[in-house]
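User: Could you check the structure of this?
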Amino acid sequence: MSTTTSHPFDQTLASAYVNLADERLGAQALANSDEFFAPASRMLNSASAVFHAGRYDDHGQ
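Assistant: Sure, the predicted structure tokens are below.
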């Protein structure tokens, strides 16, 4: 049996390095095997995730 532990996000990491998987820098998905969770283009969106209670799209809530 394996266990996982969550590690707190290090904000220093986010402020010290450039996110190369950012659509604002021209990043794009060249290929994907599955878009179950979201369209590949949405995965590169730099905007914060938005949650609307009771609102769903083709990929869930």
